[in-house]
Write a structure and sequence with these properties.
Residues 89-116 form a coiled coil. The chain has 213 residues and is mainly alpha-helical. It is built from five helices and four strands; from the N terminus they run ββαββαααα.
Length: 213
Amino acid sequence: METFGDDDCPKGHMEILFEDVRVPASNMLWGEGRGFEIAQLRLGPGRIHHCMRMIGQAERALSHMCRRATARTAFGQKLAEMGSVVQQIAECRSEIDQARLLVREAADRMDRLGNRDHYTRKLLSLVKAVVPAMTQRVVDRAMQLHGGLGGSQDSCLPAAFVAARNLRWADGPDEVHWRTAGRLELSYQRKESPLFQIELYEHDKRKPFRAKL
């Protein structure tokens, strides 16, 4: 298959066409109707794996960004001397480190409690929604700093950008993971937050407050 107009062979995405295929019952895995259950068992570790690779690509993109900033001169000064460029580098560093901590917490929680724990499930949805989008932003900044070179075949950045963008819908789009994380957080808050265990404040029982101009 082609992704973003580029041939994804030999190890990328593909189409498999089955015609008149019969599979013996003896070849059934797990049990009838349990295919989704099998897939769910590997999704947790798989998401951690994907996000670890994405963080690695973001780190590589940031290194290319810093190297370009110190080597390229524009308008009489190095890019690394321009405030806007320095800020972008700092933002990339911050976003990568935040994402890494989230992935580490999810991996630790999954190792100790498995991926059926509600809090672990929330973390797995969060890392899948957060990390590929973060990597896409970091790589995009690096490409912008490289100019035309950043989008050419002489750079590794285009492949990293495509990989991050593809992962934002692979294994479920961002919106699905945000929805899952939000619903699990609401469920947790209703059960655990002390604010849900007390009576409403008196002013909450009144009619909606109308501001007077």
